[in-house]
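Query structure, 289 tokens:
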């Protein structure tokens, strides 16, 4: 029978074991500092919060607004104009005689088309050029204003409720192919306006560029919509007509035979203001409104 004394006699001697202090590195010698352990229940790090940021892009017929979800205002608002669509190294707009050069007179339905990204009638729209303009505007928003990597950011794209499928396909293909965005979620502009106001239902009146749209929203869904062409495009053109009437004297033929309503609607042989009046008319209209 084993006694207690015999058991302790067979127990190994702990004095021969090395102490824990011998395993610690010498402070005078170079060594790797210990790394802190982050618990799963601690606060997320900065990189984790950066990956959760969601970008919001609002694409309209004349501008692109970009920002980060949760902020009160967008980071930037980029307009589409002939000057922003020029090639690198094209400085013709700074020449003294550039503004006074003769330009082709446009018809009534061509008013302001150089300042538009698209039109609802796609028969005269170059979708390849639209893709290039969208790619340039989105790249400028990323590199100059957002300063973020688009490859690991989710994107919420706000679009009008009525949009041609070919145009929507061109916009999405341009963003996916050029920026490798992981996911794009489409939202309707009236629904987000109601949600931003803190409501679930409401009536949204959107005075846009080509159309004024009145949309009824119920429980975050569009239930009815009414459209009219009495929008900023028509108002700006009327203002440009008024400016040109007082800025330049009429000829005798124009005073004796003013254009009729039929000739204005047809769009033929009716001289509209030159493109240099577009900026003046838009600025005055914006200040009056």
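Result returned for the query:
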């Amino acid at each position: 029978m084993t006694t207690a004394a015999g058991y302790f006699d067979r127990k190994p001697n702990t004095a021969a074991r090395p102490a824990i202090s011998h395993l610690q590195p010498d402070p005078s010698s170079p060594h790797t500092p210990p790394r802190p352990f982050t618990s799963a229940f601690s606060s997320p790090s900065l990189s984790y919060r950066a990956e959760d940021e969601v970008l919001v892009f609002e694409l309209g017929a004349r501008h692109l607004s970009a920002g980060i979800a949760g902020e009160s205002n967008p980071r930037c608002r980029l307009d589409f104009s002939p000057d922003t669509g020029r090639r690198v190294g094209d400085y013709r707009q700074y020449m003294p005689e550039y503004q006074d050069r003769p330009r082709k007179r446009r018809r009534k339905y061509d008013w302001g088309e150089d300042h538009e990204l698209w039109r609802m009638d796609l028969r005269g729209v170059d979708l390849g050029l639209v893709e290039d303009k969208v790619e340039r505007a989105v790249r400028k928003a990323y590199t100059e204003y957002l300063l973020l990597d688009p490859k690991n950011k989710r994107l919420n794209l706000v679009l009008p409720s009525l949009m041609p499928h070919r145009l929507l396909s061109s916009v999405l293909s341009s963003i996916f192919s050029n920026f490798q965005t992981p996911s794009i979620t489409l939202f309707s502009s009236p629904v987000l306006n109601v949600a931003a106001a803190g409501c679930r239902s409401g009536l949204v009146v959107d005075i846009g560029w080509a159309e004024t749209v009145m949309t009824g929203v119920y429980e975050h869904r569009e239930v009815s919509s009414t459209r009219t062409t009495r929008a900023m495009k028509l108002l700006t053109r009327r203002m440009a007509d008024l400016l040109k009437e007082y800025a330049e004297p009429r000829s005798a033929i124009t005073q004796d035979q003013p254009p009729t309503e039929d000739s204005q609607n047809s769009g033929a042989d009716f001289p509209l203001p030159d493109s240099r009046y577009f900026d003046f008319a838009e600025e005055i209209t914006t200040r009056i409104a």
